[in-house]
TrEMBL record:
Keywords: Signal. Gene3D superfamilies: Crystallins. This is Peptidase inhibitor family I36. It comes from the Bacteria. The keyword Signal applies. The keyword Signal applies. It comes from Promicromonospora soli. Residues 1-29 form the signal peptide.
């Protein structure tokens, strides 16, 4: 009888695990695939949700997604609807609603790996909050302390 109880308990754990798969990180099979394929050390942004429609990727900072230099240019501005983080350094990527690291900000951490739908998020860093989708205009790598609790998920 005791053996059966243990067996049932084990089965219970398996079922529970299947019902609640990594609820914290908005699991997305498409973003998992994109993350696995991404070059290590890079941050990436996508025009659509679920890591579809690559806008660009960057191992460095880009202070202006609307200009004609760097990894993000011109029409990339105010387009991102999902993000990917495959950094190695442990730094977070802080994204801003305006160019030159101004406006409102939010961060994606290394542990988060990706944000599959920015429509669920706001850039809460700064004096107010601003929508996270179709608004990003600059990004930079910073230690998590400089995110001041404004984390995207
Ligand atoms: Ca740029
Ligand atoms: Ca978009
Ligand atoms: Ca913007």
């Amino acid at each position: 009888m005791r053996k059966i109880s243990i067996l049932l308990a084990t089965l219970g754990l398996v079922v529970t695990g299947a019902l609640f798969p990594v609820a914290s990180a908005q699991a997305s099979a498409a973003c998992d695939t994109a993350w696995n394929a991404a070059t290590p050390g890079r941050f990436g942004a996508f025009e659509d949700i679920h890591c579809a429609g690559v806008l660009g990727s960057d191992a460095d900072d880009d202070p202006n997604w609307a200009d004609s230099v760097g990894s993000f240019q011109g029409s990339d501005n105010d387009k991102a609807s999902s993000l990917l983080h495959k950094g190695n350094s442990g730094l977070a990527v802080r994204v801003w609603s305006d160019a030159n690291y101004r406006g409102n900000f939010g961060c994606i951490t290394k542990d988060e790996k990706y944000v599959s739908d920015l429509h669920d998020n706001y850039l809460t860093g700064g004096t107010d909050k601003f929508r996270a989708w179709d608004s990003i205009s600059s990004h930079e790598w910073v230690s998590e302390a400089y995110c001041y609790g404004a984390f995207l998920s």
